[in-house]
Known about the structure:
The protein is α/β, with parallel strands linked by helices and about 350 residues long. The chain has helices at about 1-25, 65-85, 90-100, 115-130, 195-200, 205, 220-235, 245-255, 265-270, 280-285, 300-310, 315-330, 345-355; strands spanning about 30-35, 40-45, 50, 55-60, 90, 135-140, 145, 150-155, 155-160, 170, 180, 185-190, 210-215, 240, 275, 295, 330.
Amino acid sequence: MVKMLRKTSDEIKKLGKDLVNKIAKGQNPFLDVPIRSLSNVFYDQKSKLIKLGNRSSKRFLFNVAHIRKFVQTSEVAANAKDLIEAGKHISLRQAFYMMRRTIPGTNIDIVDEQEESNKAVEDLELITGYSREQLNINANKNGAAAGKIIIKDKGDTIDWSKLGSGGWAIPSNTEDIQFKKVNAKFVLYMEKAAIWERLHEDRFWDKMNCIIVASQGQATRGIRRLLSRLHHEHKLPVYVLTDFDPWGFYIYSVLKYGSISLAHISDKLAVPKIKFLGLTAEDIDNYSLRKYIIKFKDVDKKRLEQMRKYRWFEGKKDWQRQFKKMKEMKGKVELDALVTKGVSFISEKYLPEKIKKKDFLD
């Protein structure tokens, strides 16, 4: 860990020295930033991951169109270097306030909105090759985990099976967590905290000898890295449990293939062998859930059409059938509807049967 922090700090210093040297030589200093857009992202058939292409854009200090972003990225780099050397961490919101200062001799602030500081952090990730967590800038916690796992985190030994009803709160940075003992057959990730709470109260993780992980909506980077590490380091299968809706399918897609916005670190966050264990069109008919269909809004229809055309879903008959059935239903069904079959139906019947039958979508 210390070695990695030193490497990160050295990379930022190298960036700064390069800019200073260009100025000393009378050159116009610039930052070479990889382009992070759909035009520079591709699906790699071999790795089954969404990856960033090799196109980049130069941002010059002495260019009216570039100077603001140049200064913002330089500022966040200076702050990250100080944080690493001090051994301190800040949140994205705090990074915004650290950057929001007025340039001497002017009435111009370096940043006006947090969106600007967030993008500057992302640019620094792309330039240095280090994630924001390795730059000591973290997002908010948003997830929980439980199971027969013992970890070491910041010197503390933590047993995920003995943390009461709340489970282990997953931090933004899960890179440096040490797994001391892992006793599980698989990992089950779900998009909803309420479903996690039902499974946790029923001790599903104990009965099925698994790990249960949840977020609230799209998984954070910390959760995605945690799933990736459990899969790659401990060879655990990972299953995704979501609603039958375009957004649930999108969550699965991001976990499996990566995302356009984070294509530069897909290899660290995505799990290409992940499988879908959530609600399907067949489940809706098998468990008589059609009466609980929630009608689509225009935004849902748009997302469904986008998903159907993704390259990684093209030619996959099982997935195309789900998209077609969903379009025909003109709506979505939530996992919560399973409670109509019994409070613990999802943990006592639905999931055990699907897992036993290996009723997955890949």
